[in-house]
Amino acid sequence: DVLVDRAxxxxxxxxxxxxxxxxxxxxxxxxxxxxRQVQSSIPEIAAAFADAQAIVAPIDTSTLLPxxxxxxSDILQVIDVATPALGVAExxxxxxxDIAGSGGTKTYLLIFQNNAEIRATGGNPAASxxxxxxDGKLGYVDQAxxxxxxxxxTAGNAYVALPAETSGLYLPTLNRNSQDxxxxxxxxxxAQLFQALWSHTTGATFDGVISxxxxxxxxxxxxxxxxxxxxxxxxxxxxxxxxxxSDAYERYPTGGESDEFFEDAAMEVFTHLTQSQxxxxxxxxxxxxxxxxxxxxxxxxxPAAQALAVEFGLDGALPADNATQTQVGIYLNDxxxxxxEYHLGTTVAATCDPAARTITTTMTLxxxxxxxxxxxxxxxxxxxxFGLDRTTMMLDVLFFAPPGAQITQTxxxxxxxxxxxxxxxxxxxxxxxxxxxVDKGETETVSFTVALPAGDLGPLHLRYSxxxxxxxxxxxxxxxxxxxxxxxx
Length: 489
Prior knowledge:
The chain is α+β, with helices and mostly antiparallel strands. It is 35% helix and 23% strand. It has 12 helices and 17 strands. A 5-stranded mixed β-sheet has the order 3-2-1-4-7. A 5-stranded mixed β-sheet has the order 13-14-11-8-16. Helix 8 runs parallel beside helix 10 (255-275). The longest helix is centred in the first third of the chain and has 34 residues, at 66-99. The two termini are 33 Å apart.
């Protein structure tokens, strides 16, 4: 009675006003009006579900006949699913509307991380686009400003000074070349570097920096359907990653041609996604899968929007403490100067010694490059200086401990290149970098052991660099004695 009387009328009103098949607006974007209309009704709908839950939850269904208990269980299942979702909607719908430009134009940098040239949070972010959202409608920043932004990004200027203990972990190009802004696993730092570059270009700031990779695009194409590129090739959920991260370099062997194809294709895919019709719930599921695979990161200048990114675990930040999570990370940065890592396969595993209060995290690295790869742009451009075959992957492996923890052992103990041994700290997390060579067809294993700080620890969060393929992750049962289960577990 509570649900029918208080939740159903505004819910039906929203459904009547919303045609999910027509949410996409001409030119790209989303019609925000139905969401603005329902915004005032959500608190009442949420309160009705909370009151209904309070009425039904105390009932001991074990004392009831199945005909009654089954019905009550059905109601509880609906309430248990809807109540937290409504709470999120009530809390964040105003922020989401603002992000979509309901209150005025928002400007965002959308970067596509190229996993074929791997970086800590995904890959080389050379391909990007500057977009605007005005009342849900998509636009693009003028080409002149965009080109100046891209040109300045490779001019070798540093607009953000980093602490010595942090810059010592990376090549000096981290804050001097926009293609290396993703060397760091701390996405807020990456966003800060891009923000400073845009500010120097225009005097303005982005309202947000959004990072995805071609695997995210493939997940979204599975919902939105395939498209035909201007080159005449059909791009599907099944072939998108291979076409963008491997085939393009074989077809366009020079860097300029292949980069142009990648950028044009990314633009066409993005336009297709924003203009075509698709099931919103299926698209949310595709984005959730992408987030679970650590392929989406968000950074906003508005505190409310950034709080949303943090709550949903999309901020990609190195934590200040271990209260809400204990973050352990293994990250990869390409040192071959090529596009070899499309062929990289990885796994991650963690084991713990509760008595010693340590955790050991291991990553396997497999080089699966095939004989048909001939593009000089794909093969390692730096390899010859080290006497290596151009199919060998040269990877800087970054080991990051949680705040207050110490790295006690690494495998390898010393990297392949002595002068590239690096150690330091970033945002309070100790880190070391070791260079590893992975020959064609070979598998290498890297690992590190961390002595954890005293006191309570938040749930374990294993971070890693996402590759062009899925990364299986396993956590040994021995870790349950040190870390509480995450809320969604």
